[in-house]
Amino acid sequence: MWFEPRPLPSAALRVLAPIAAVIAALALCAALIAWTGTSVAQAYVLLFQGSLGSRFALAETLTRATPLMLTGLAAAVAFRAKLWNIGAEGQLYAGALIAVMLGGGMVDLPVWALLPAALIGGALAGSALLIGPTVLKTGFGVDEVVTTLLLNFVTLLFVSMMLEGALKDPMGMGWPQSAPVLPEAELPRLIERSRLHAGLIIALLAAVALWIMNTRTTWGYEIKAVGANQAAAAFAGIPVNWVMLKVAILSGGLAGLAGASEIAGTRGYLTLDLSPGFGYSGIVVAMLAQLHPLGVVVASIFVAAIFVGADAMSRTVAVPNYIAEVLVAVSLLCVLVSAFLVRFRVRRTAARTS
Amino acid sequence: MVSTPAVEPEVVLRLTGITKRFGALTANDAISLDLRRGRVMALLGENGAGKTTLMNILFGHYVADAGHIEAFGQPLPPGSPKAALAAGICMVHQHFTLADNLSVLDNVILGTEPLWRFWTDRGRARRKLVSLAERFGLVVDPDASVGALSVGERQRVEILKALYRDARILILDEPTAVLTPQESERLFATLKLLTAEGLAIVFISHKMNEVMAASDNVGVLRGGRLVAVRRTAETNRGELAELMIGRTLKAPTVEPMAAGEPVLTLAGVTVKAGGGNGQGMLDAVDLKIRRHQIIGIAGVSGNGQSALADLVSGLIVPDAGLLEVLGNGIARTGPGAMVRCGVARIPEDRHATGLVGDMTVWENLIAERYRLPEFSRFGFLKRGAARQRAEGVIKDYDVRCPGPDAVSRLLSGGNMQKLILGRTLSYGPGLILANQPTRGLDVGAVAYVHERLLAARAGGAGILLISEDLDEILALSDQIAVIHRGRLSPPQPRSAVTIRQLGLAMAGHWTELSEVA
Questions:
Q1: Which CATH number covers residue B211?
Q2: Within this chain, do residues B139 and B177 fall inside the same structural domain, yes or no?
Q3: Which residues on adjacent β-strands are paired with residue B92?
């Protein structure tokens, strides 16, 4: 067997490959489901119904997809410039912390300004958290994978300290949680009696804006050039360090916005279990989407649907909801393999002699 | 080993009707070729003529669409590098395939030992390696770490690797591309020893003088077809060059021109180590380039050429001294500032710093000017204008590519260089930095680059030509200066210097050069 590079992969191939990969992942995981003694068809039908099959399920999936979309975009924009931001989780919590402080009325603001202040403040907090590692990277060559990853734990501990101290809700019966934000600082609901909130609109707008930035603007051009060949970009006169900083502000800001939108949209108050790893799942979402902003939208809904659907499925049949993690992981592997097969074609050794 | 012409040694490798297509492109078109024992067959051809494809088919990396291969009378199964190795066919790639962190011995035995055994017979391996090295004059310390070896030594390790695997047919892909002239001489001596032992060698090259020096036969490829096979003794450089490019080439003629006002002035410029890519430095360099003037900088690589180029590119600033470009005293320089002043920069390495391989032709063409009103407005790119410009450059500079949206990585070296020329020269620059402008290019592309540089000179540009190719320096320059350990000799008129003087000056004997002054 031999891999031969394809000169130019067609557009159809590039779109169909990830779909085929997801189907392959579902097929592979069918074996695990069958192992539990459950009917595979029944399990997948339940998974589908539980995630997309009803108004309520769909709303729940989109609610779950909203923070994933934002952290996915955060990873996608940074990875495009080869700025390996693994710190979206910490940036998310930093954003949530500032959002809960501003939205809770800690600073004297007019009522109409509470929500914008919470969202923008949260985004800026996320940006600020990524600027440090980026300056260390461009100025001193410090590996940002290590610094951003470790900052996650620092941030989480800091948030924990705040929740046990300055921000602790006096009415919280001793639980480490903050006081809720004021009603004026909440994002409006999109559907009655569901948790779906306007954060989804913000995330979708962010995805479209990033797509336009990537394809149409000088910023997107700079980011692509710096990511693809930093030396050539510098030689041509592209200000590499400044581009990195812009990317850091964008990426950290999106992750911070994810935290702020969770506070203002779903929770209203801050606890240490605000995020079940949205920051890390964002990396998976970005990779599934091959770093394409609109792909991130699809990938985040897909990942959210798997998690929400698996929860519903596990309540009916004897398949533990851990299957969601397996499905997402196998999907990522399949998408990576399919991306490879888009670039290379497989040739059999013994084929085509004449 | 001198064989009488009447008795040709037996054929060890026979290619019959090899055809390989990639989409619409026929990379190899019914190529038939015989290789005989103890002979060096040179394969000559421009970039993209099909040399590498042919060798990849021979070595089993690609499967031919038609045709078959016989090695030592046995058919070679297609598409199997393993079968090729078993038949004694070994390939030394242009870009070495060595593990830098392992020793020479480990690199050589890597892949020859079964993986599931916990020991290796290193004593025997070492004895075999040392005896091979002695027999063929391939002196390398078996315990040296490959990372610490020079390029020439690494190539010797690659050849030893092949010999250790009992190679009987050795394929060398552009073996001299990375070697100094002295190292190339040594390589050719080794090839003589190898053929004397009965090895057959395929030598891929596009450098005429090496083909003449090292081969017994030469096959010329052009556009995927084998257009001629000649005995090296019965042909000459002129004939081969014509066969290779399919037309006659004339040497560049440098018309004498009166030099105009200065476009680049360096006065006592010093760059301390650590600037740019850290290679070399400059020590109180004085230089003046005027309009209509080409100043050639000769020197052994690593003597400060990179620092000089980085300085004029705007990548580094002088630690001391004065730098003046086109009448502007430059205090806070940068690549962008240089471009806006009217400096055209042709970098040393097309792949590493010249182009972004994963971006398209049009994207690369606007890299130096994307923020100017010509190509963007309010932060939005004018994609139409950029594409239109790309189409213009593709036409004016004869860039062979499918169009403005082609990915630059897929272009051949010559076309990449044309792209860079089009990016910079079409704006009528006053000063051109040409750093190794023809390295790795084939004859046709070299002539094209020279023609363009001379046209720019006639158009009023001053050119700083940095090259390790003395022939190029002598052919183009009005004045020649030699750089050695960061110091630059006073430029001398081309008519006043000889190759011998330049060679001595490059080795640091400056008095040779100043005597003519």
A1: 3.40.50.300
A2: yes
A3: B172
Number of domains in chain B: 2
What gap in Å lies between CA A266 and CA B60, rounded to an integer?
60
Q: B398 lies in which domain range?
A: 262-515
Question: Between chains, do A228 and B357 touch, taking CB under 8 Å as contact?
Answer: yes
What gap in Å lies between CA A101 and CA A95, rounded to an integer? Answer: 10
Residues B144, B36 share a domain: yes
User: Residue A217 gets which letter from DSSP?
Assistant: B
Q: Which residues between 99 and 128 in chain B have a beta carbon less than 8 angstroms from any beta carbon of chain A?
A: none
Examine residue B172 and state whether it is found in any structural domain, yes or no. yes
Contact A244, A230 (CB under 8 A): no
pTM given for the model: 0.78
Shared-domain flag, residues B228 and B377: no
On whether the CB atoms of residues A194 and A59 are closer than 8 A, the answer is: yes
Q: How far apart are CA A120 and CA A260, in angstroms?
A: 8
Chain B residues touching residue A350 (CB < 8 angstroms)? 77-79
How far apart CA B420 and CA B6 sit, in angstroms, is 52
Count of domains for chain A: 1
Does residue B237 sit in the same domain as residue B307? no
Provide the residue-wise pLDDT of chain A in tens; the chain has 354 residues: 667 777 667 778 877 888 899 899 999 999 988 888 888 899 999 999 999 999 999 999 999 999 999 999 999 999 999 999 999 999 999 999 999 999 988 888 898 999 999 999 999 999 999 999 999 999 999 999 999 999 999 999 999 999 998 888 888 787 888 989 999 999 999 988 889 999 999 999 999 999 999 999 999 999 999 999 999 999 999 999 999 999 999 999 999 999 999 999 998 999 999 999 999 999 999 999 989 999 999 999 999 999 999 988 888 888 888 888 899 889 889 988 988 888 888 776 544 433
Helices of type H across chain A: 11-35, 40-52, 55-80, 88-103, 114-140, 144-164, 199-216, 218-228, 230-236, 240-262, 278-288, 293-316, 323-343
Which residue is closest to A217 within chain B, CA to CA?
B380
Greater confidence (A194 vs B365) lies with B365
Q: Locate tokens 């004045």: which residue?
A: B479
Residues in B closer than 8 angstroms to A239, CB to CB, are 336
Chain B residue numbers touching A233 (CB-CB < 8 A): 356, 367
Query: With contact defined as beta carbons under 8 Å apart, do B184 and B210 qualify?
Result: yes
Distance, in angstroms, between A237 CA and closest chain B CA?
A: 5
For residue A59, being part of any structural domain is answered with no
Positions of E strands within B105-187: 169-173
> Do B466 and B348 belong together in one domain?
yes
3-state secondary structure of B139: coil
Nearest C-alpha of chain B: how many angstroms from A100? 34
**A231/B79 Cβ within 8 A:** no
Chain B stretch 372-391, residues whose beta carbon is closer than 8 A to a beta carbon of chain A: 376, 379-381, 383
- Residue ranges making up the domain that contains A274: 65-284
Report yes or no on A73 lying in a domain.
yes
Whether B3 is in a domain gets the answer no
- Quote the CA–CA distance of A197 and A195 in Å, as a whole number: 6
Query: Is residue B21 located within the same domain as residue B166?
Result: yes
CA separation for the pair B77, B68 (Å, rounded): 9
**If you count residue pairs, one on A and one on B, with CB atoms under 8 Å apart, how many are there?**
99
Same domain membership, residue B64 and residue B17:
yes
Contact A156, A90 (CB under 8 A): yes
